[in-house]
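Backbone shape codes:
===
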Amino acid sequence: MNVTRERAAAVLAGNWLGASTVPSRALYPHQWSWDSAFIALGLRHLSPGHARRELLTLFEAQWPDGRVPHIVFDPQTPPEAYFPGPSFWQAGRTSGLVQPPVHARAVLAVHEAEPDHAFLAALYPKLVAWHDHLRTGRDAGGRGLVAIVHPWESGMDNSPAWDEPLSRVPLATGFVRRDLAHGDPGDRPSDDDYGRYVRLAAAYRDSGYRDFGDFVVEDPGFNALLADAELALAEIAEELGLPSGAHREAAARLEKALQETLWEDGFFFARDVHTGSLIREHTCAGLLPLMLPDLAVAPALLTTATGPRFRLGRVHGVPSYDLTAPGFDPARYWRGPSWSNVGWLVRQGLLHHGEFALAAQLRDDLVETAAQTGFAEYADPLTGAGHGARSFSWTAALTVDLLSEGK
């Protein structure tokens, strides 16, 4: 076995709790929604049974309304290990927010690694309910796009795209951050950001997890991943001998709405639903529509991706923020560093649109950077230096997946 693959497999084994995988033993000691999908992509090559268990465990915590919560809390972990914990959310063993819907793609990939129609049959109706919840309960703008109600739902917590809508949110006080005990403050969101996150989450909780609040944003990354998930769901339906047309139509509607609503000047921008205005910050979320094979504007988006703002192919990974922006920070969370999951997603888009040489270059860089940084949570796109947690599960898992390609 390749040495890097062995090391990545050891990370995943070390972070396995018995029914799911923590992103990081110290910093993130519970199960996170989109983390588990990416983790399953790697686990399928090492132990398909563990990959199935990862996803089944997550969906066992699905809410009656169809939402898949962004955290499933481990009852064996002390409550003080993470904030905000279960007592804050008042939702039993989960949080009340969501994360990007990458799960159908992971379920399909796990099945392809070791076909298991019972696994597909168990998760297909749960995935349908999950997507239905997003489409019916989150179309706040009335344009056919899903809105997020908290930066945590994007998976890209302190993205500069959220600065403007967050500015309307007062700061919460009287809480203790647990993340700073396990991470360099220079790598993490600021205290002001965190104060607004807590205030937003508390308001949403107090509404019974129903009301749109001060932060309501149509995120191009979230919606592109939902469109891709509908395409995956169509393939799952076909595997089960079920009609797939409705899923393909849903994907086409989302793609059309993305281009009509969020596309401008060669890029996909987030839209503030409260003001109706685009948030003109170039973040990596605006590159994720490359995941859609029929994207008409893909050539123009690729021009932006390889241009000075992201310099794809000339830096490490995919920068999370515009390299030319005054606020670019190569070390601070989603304000500049490259993340392996975004690199993995963008690489899929490159393959869809025939950019095979660039995709191969990105694959090699993602693997090398992961190995050299001890599978860091994220990395400086200019130097490749690691930041955040080490032995990070999705970095290790996606390294396994990239190294297993073609085997």
